Amino acid sequence: MRQPELQRHNLKKVSPLPTEEQIREFIRTSKGPVGKREVARAFNIRGPAKIALKALMKQMSMPGDIAKGKRRFQKAGALPPIDVIEVSTIDKDGDLFGKPVNWAFEAPPPAILIIAKPGRGHALGLGDRVLAKITPAGDDAYEARVMKLMPAGAGRLMGIYESQAVGGRLRPVDRRYRHEVHIAERDKGGAENGDLVAVEIVATKHHGPQQARVVERYGKMERARNLSLIAIQAHGIPHIFSEDAEQQARKSKAATLGTRTDIRDIPLVTIDGEDARDFDDAVWAEADADPANPGGWHLLVAIADVSWYVRMGDALDKDAYDRGNSTYFPDRVVPMLPEELSNGWCSLKPKEDRPCLAAHMWIDKSGKLLRHKFIRGLMKSIARLTYNQVQAAIDGHPDDTTGPLIEPILKPLYGAYRALLKARDERGTLELDLIERQIIVDREGHIKGVVPRARYDSHKLIEEFMINANVAAAERLETSAYPCVYRIHERPDPERVANLKEALSTLDLPTPNPTSARPADFNRILTKVRGGPHEHLVNTLVLRTQSQAVYSPSNVGHFGLALRRYAHFTSPIRRYADLMVHRALIAAEKLGEGGWDAARDPNVEDMAEYISITERRSSKAERETVDRFTASYLGNQIDATFRGRVNGVSRFGIFITLDETGADGIMPMRNLPNDYYDLDEAHHRLIGQRHGLVLQVGQTVVVRLKETDDITGSIVFEYVEGSGPARENTKPIRGFRQNRKATHKRRR
Known about the structure:
This protein is α+β, with helices and mostly antiparallel strands. The protein has 16 helices and 34 strands. A hairpin with a 5-residue loop joins strand 3 and strand 4 (about 95-100). Helix 5 runs antiparallel to helix 16, helix 6 crosses helix 7 and helix 12 packs antiparallel against helix 14 (about 535-545). It is globular.
């Protein structure tokens, strides 16, 4: 023991201290980092001896025996109970692993499994940083449970490498990243001008650019179709199947009838979009012949039997779970399953035998689900129809394919659909009127247009049939011994509803009670503004009030659909959640091979949490890619004027959505008329003090396109005209003030 420092505390007059070896052993066997308080308590150190203990532990930290942090000590190389972790890898099983941002030891950091709770917000990707609660999980391994996402900072970034006279610079794909990033010649890793690269920040200064080195190259960004590659790489979306999975898919073959129910004589049809390549659901309906159910209907929804080809734990299953779902971009699909299955044996192609899992459902004339029965069958679709074809036929314009199907097939389908609509209206499903963008591309990936996606009754028909089948699946599993992965949508947070109520207070609209809001309450608001000047504003605000739907083995119902129980059953080709439901149904109904394997004892809660994360990952990647394609399409229309609507206000500018294309962009403060502006957060608007210009969410404006960036997907507008006065030639006094409560034109 080193005495000089300790002798100053006159150790002979205080309680005996533990030896250094005893303290090391205590720290080594502790579950987490410890401090002086824990050591004192463990060795019954009291009074003045605590001062000597502090000195001893201070000396022990000098040679590296133990690590010292803020008032805490830990084993050398151990992690604190709460730390900032950066996502560094996504393994073949889809698990996220990270490394501590602050690692001061020479030894490599321990393995950290990141566990993110499902819910609102960001789907974690490579380079993201989180504040996490750290717990040991075995030898030199830890689990990190995410507490919150940290702001973008130094770490791994993705962008376009741009050559300079010496070295180069990074053009980040993340529009939120505001730092200048330089790359030295020695750190460019062979990158060439225009390459999509990943870099790691190696030096950050208080002033001047950040320094980075290239850690991975993904190739040239020369064509529009490569815009989706940015999202695939930036979000770590698995897009290459393992050789084992590919080989297993190639060996797949047609399923035989065996013990299946033969339903090949039932004239099922598929109805999908024109560009659909995988057909995983088929429908049929007839009037119910039961005299006890007058006006009722018998529905059949047949779904591709993916569980026959993908068994729990095999190579295909591992790759499918890794992806969690298919991801759809304007120019490509990253499928959950290889093409031999997604577009082959698991696609319900017309005139070909296909294995299926099917739900027979009987509803009354008001659309109420009376009973249901699940079978495992062999089917044969009689036709592959599109939404446009079906709608045209029902509207009196059939073609050669739909003409013969109107009376025997389409009219019964629409009869059942009208009954289901009655049930939908009765229970009060949330009816938001939202516009979805569709990017039109040719085979070479060139963008031909951006248009609002059409929404017909034929779309709604399929949607209602699928909802009914999903409810039936949840009802059946609720009474079984097998787990159900519910699709849950919690009621809105009361605080958000209260904020909505305040925002709509000036519009004289019926607003819901924050603690007992129902979908029907929101529908009354939406109905009252439909077709009026505030329609877009109210739809936007109601949408932002809602929570995010997730997967869970614990059922809390689906608020938006006003359903007590709901599961995803109808798309096992593209959603792993549906595959899990299929397996549980097969086991519950004793329908043969490929059902739920209880012997494998999968953790359903963790699986539901993970596929909720992959869903959000895909949604964000898809949304960002649509933004990039849209920015690319508008790139040759600089200085053109467009009509749009305000969809958000902030202290740094106005968010605009164009009417014609649905393109989203920003109108920064510098591009507004010269003035000081008050931000009224409660009513979602900016008010100019001097000229009285009001810019409020939902308001129509005319803007001029000033900038586009197809790499980040950013679009910048300039104000032309709106509800306020036009720009005046005055001395620039542009600025900003924030007023959270009452808003009025301030006297100066």
